[in-house]
Write a structure and sequence with these properties.
This protein is α/β, with parallel strands linked by helices. The chain is 43% helix and 14% strand.
Length: 270
């Protein structure tokens, strides 16, 4: 890939696995997305990322001590026009794109008798819709760079049923898109893959709160993992970085679970 530096950007040492390469990561202000951004920057890349609030992005920049190698913009990825404009801005600032990570996502609503049509529509927009528009808007830039890698963060809920169905269905849609996009974009040197995390232990989030507030329930849930331990964001980020790298140049159209062998995706089982 290119080692050029965009005009007006600070020159950075061409060191590391991703030296001189340019990536877009959606949902990169914290959690798994933040870890992906950190890992890519540490390995020499320049990164553009987005999140819902400017405050969270400012916090990321401070935590990483990042300079011109990190471009950030607050937006909601469920709004296609904003997402597409962000990709165009990122490509212009970075001088092109070599890889993309669709990390933003989520779910709205409760069970089937309570979830509204809006809950279903938003869950779809956050996951399947966001991924599709990100691929569509970034593919021309990847093609112009001679190819690249696209990774979507899906979930084991995409094929292991559990509540709520609107989340699992939208994640399953992502997994269907991956081999389809891989075949369509393969002639241009673009690889497309999915990483499906299991339940991640992220400080301050659901499973970490359960561990602190209800240790018995947490131990029961941890029994769904053969090693009795939940997967970490660092473990998932390492696999994402592998799929973005030249080491995975022969890998496309696949879904790679990173779940420590997790069985049921929720405490409620299948």
């Amino acid at each position: 890939m290119t080692g050029k530096v965009a005009q007006g950007m600070q020159q950075v040492p061409l060191k590391g696995r991703f030296a001189g390469r340019r990536f877009v990561v959606t949902g990169g202000s914290r959690g798994l997305g933040g870890e992906v951004v950190r890992l890519l920057l540490a390995d020499g890349a320049r990164v553009a990322t987005c999140a819902r609030t400017a405050e969270s992005l400012d916090g990321l920049r401070r935590a990483l001590g990042a300079g011109d190698e990190l471009f950030t913009e607050p937006l909601d990825v469920a709004e296609p026009e904003l997402l597409e404009r962000f990709v165009e801005s990122a490509a212009a600032v970075l001088g092109g794109l070599d890889g993309v990570v669709a990390c933003a996502g989520g779910a709205r609503g409760r069970g089937i008798t309570e979830a509204t049509a809006e809950d279903w529509a938003m869950s779809w927009a956050l996951n399947a819709g966001h991924f599709a528009r990100l691929v569509a808007s970034s593919a021309p830039h990847l093609r112009a760079s001679g190819g690249g890698s696209i990774v979507v963060v899906s979930s084991i809920s995409g094929w292991k049923p559990g509540p709520q169905a609107q989340y699992g269905a939208s994640k399953a849609a992502q997994l269907h898109m991956v081999p389809s996009f891989a075949r369509e974009l393969g002639p241009y040197g673009i690889r497309v893959n999915a990483v499906s995390p299991g339940s991640m232990l992220i400080p301050g989030k659901r499973w970490d709160r359960m561990r602190q507030e209800d240790p018995v329930a947490y131990r029961n849930f941890a029994a769904e993992f053969p090693g009795q331990e939940l997967v970490t964001p660092e473990e998932v980020a390492d696999v994402i970085a592998f799929l973005l790298s030249d080491q995975a140049r022969g890998v496309t159209g696949v879904n790679l679970p990173v779940d420590r062998g997790q069985n049921a995706p929720t405490p409620q089982g299948y």
